[in-house]
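Researcher: Let's do a round of design. I'm pasting the structure tokens now; please hold your answer until I've finished.
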């Protein structure tokens, strides 16, 4: 693409230079920039953020609500882009991630980093201007937590990486509530706790059948460091704790019978799948003899669990009052 002499030294030229498409064709390059944002992760993050907005005692106007959702989406995507930029070395040696845009060479590392920083700043500033400083601060901290504390420190240093790092993905309900109300309350904190406790059994189920990838990359995920059998027990323990915590909204009078039934039924289901992982056919070292089919089912169920649990919360608070 040729720029006119007037634009060749302008900020527009710089931006176009940074964001020039690195793919083989326009469509492929657009997909690469979108892929940097981890859209699958964003969808769940935005959903829990919207839940935080919807369960608040009062709702924002439609334009402000759309801005809040956009900021959560962009901020989460920016954190994902930081993760892909920093993890390009280990992503390149893992089968599951080797096709990502940066390790695959379709997007330059420096372009990915600038992209992530611009989106991070834009999302925080826009949320601040549209709502309040508390919501903007929580969003900024969540980006920092995932991009720096988890990605650059915890992920490569401790088998408890996903336990502590899970806080990053648990902030959206608090952001949604804070953006709407200007303060926090018991319910958004409990929603944070639910997502926080959901994260370990969710990711450890994945780690069980992706263990070789993590071992090759030198990532100290729990199955790599402590073994598969220890990980199976941890999954079960966390599902029990998660089920108990998921009933707290009812215990403190924030929800009614509908949510209580949903939380109990979904929790029993999660425990069931956790027990299937625990009692999977194993060798003497605890490695699966069934290609970790129960772990794969548990991972898929965990996604459905969080979605339907928050749907139950929305129905109870919004429709049933």
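Researcher: That's everything. Go ahead.
Model: Designed sequence:
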């Amino acid at each position: 693409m040729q720029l006119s002499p007037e634009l060749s030294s302008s900020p527009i030229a710089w931006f176009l230079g940074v964001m020039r498409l690195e793919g083989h064709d326009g469509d492929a390059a657009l997909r690469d920039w979108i892929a940097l944002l981890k859209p699958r992760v964003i969808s769940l993050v935005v959903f829990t953020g919207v839940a935080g907005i919807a369960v608040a005692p009062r709702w924002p106007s439609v334009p402000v609500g759309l801005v809040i959702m956009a900021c959560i989406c962009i901020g989460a995507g920016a954190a994902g882009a930081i993760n892909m930029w920093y993890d390009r070395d280990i992503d390149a040696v893992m089968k599951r991630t080797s096709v990502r845009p940066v390790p695959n060479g379709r997007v330059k590392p420096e372009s990915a980093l600038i992209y992530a920083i611009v989106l991070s700043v834009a999302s925080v500033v826009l949320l601040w201007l549209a709502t309040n400083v508390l919501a903007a601060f929580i969003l900024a901290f969540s980006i920092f937590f995932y991009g720096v504390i988890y990605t650059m420190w915890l992920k490569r240093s401790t088998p408890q990486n996903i336990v502590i790092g899970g806080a990053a993905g648990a902030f959206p309900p608090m952001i949604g509530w804070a953006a709407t109300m200007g303060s926090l309350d018991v319910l958004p904190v409990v929603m944070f706790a639910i997502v926080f406790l959901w994260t370990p059994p969710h990711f450890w189920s994945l780690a069980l059948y992706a263990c070789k990838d993590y071992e090759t990359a030198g990532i100290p995920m729990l199955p790599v460091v402590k073994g598969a059998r220890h990980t199976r027990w941890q999954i079960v323990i966390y599902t029990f704790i998660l089920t108990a915590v998921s009933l707290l909204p009812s215990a403190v009078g924030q929800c009614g019978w509908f949510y209580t039934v949903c939380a109990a039924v979904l929790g029993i289901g999660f425990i069931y799948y956790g027990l299937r992982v625990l009692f999977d056919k194993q060798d003497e070292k605890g490695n699966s003899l069934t290609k970790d089919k129960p772990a794969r089912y548990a991972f898929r169920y965990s996604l459905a669990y969080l979605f339907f649990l928050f749907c139950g919360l929305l129905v109870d608070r919004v429709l049933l009052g």
